[in-house]
Amino acid sequence: MKFIALFAVSVLFTTPALSEELVIPGSGNPEFVLGELANAFNARQKTHRIVIPPSTGIAGAIRVVSEGISTLGRVGRPLTEAELAKGLVYLPLGREAVAVAAGAGVSVQAISSAQLADVFTGKITNWAALGGKPAPIRAIGKESTDAIRRQLTIQFKDLVYADSVKIVHLDTFLIELLDRYPTSFAVINRSALGACKTKVAILALDGVQPTVENVSNGSYPMLMEFGLIHKPSGLSPAGKAFVEFIRSPEGEKIFRTHGVLVKNANG
Fold first, then answer.
1. What does the alpha-carbon distance between residue 56 and residue 67 come to, in Å, rounded to a whole number?
2. Which of 192, 249, 210, 261 is nearest to 36 (CA)?
3. pLDDT digits (tens, 9 = 90+) for 98-119
4. HSE-up of residue 226 (Cα within 13 Å, Cβ side)
5. CA 167 vs CA 56, 179, 184, 224, 265: distances in Å
6. pTM (2 d.p.)
7. What is the pLDDT of residues 141-159, one digit of tens each?
8. How many alpha carbons lie under 13 Å from residue 249 in its C-beta half-sphere?
9. Taking CA 117 as the corner, what is the angle to CA 113 and CA 122, rounded to the nearest 5 degrees?
10. If 0-12 CB within 10 Å is exposed, 13-18 middle and 19+ buried, where does residue 82 land?
11. What kind and span of H or E run contains 79?
């Protein structure tokens, strides 16, 4: 019994205590890939634990960080001047392609920018018009204030969607519909597609595939950027450690696996 007691005391003093559990709320765009990074980070050290909860949107991230509820938030776009004026710091993490995705039942492999616009405005409603098997296109869109739409060129940002387009407010809902309907259609950041449970199709846009290489060389026509926000006082120890991990060779490899090009604060 004395040996057991001594062993228990030894374990108590040799097992490292959790220093900080850091919850990073906010945008759904980087939710999946940051979740993958958090899982890898948590598995490789026991000092801190990073939690990536379901999306509360960019507005949610700004609110909780501004009010001091959370020291770090995730956003799917750079902050505006008005948002920065609230006393927030934007830390860019990565750039990636905004991919054109279709349900697992779609055989079409490519689409042009003009055709993409025609699908969302209701001029093209059947996959046969794009060279595929006859089937209705179940187009899914995000609201005009969505982080991705705000970063696209005027050609796409100002599109007025047809009434037939199903508008969703969270990426998780968009992914769910892509999985549910084999003839669905949507645009979403490339890394978010890692959450799909079915083998969705990823179409080339204007003859260019949404790869890291084509993001890097600027040949892919639709890009988005995401990052983290915090107060000017700086990052907590867990926040610093997580950002260092993201920008380490291992973190960069995880990013690239999901189509993300790491972006440093200096560009």
1. 15
2. 192
3. 999 999 999 999 999 999 999 9
4. 32
5. 17, 16, 13, 20, 33
6. 0.87
7. 998 888 888 787 756 777 8
8. 0
9. 150
10. exposed
11. none
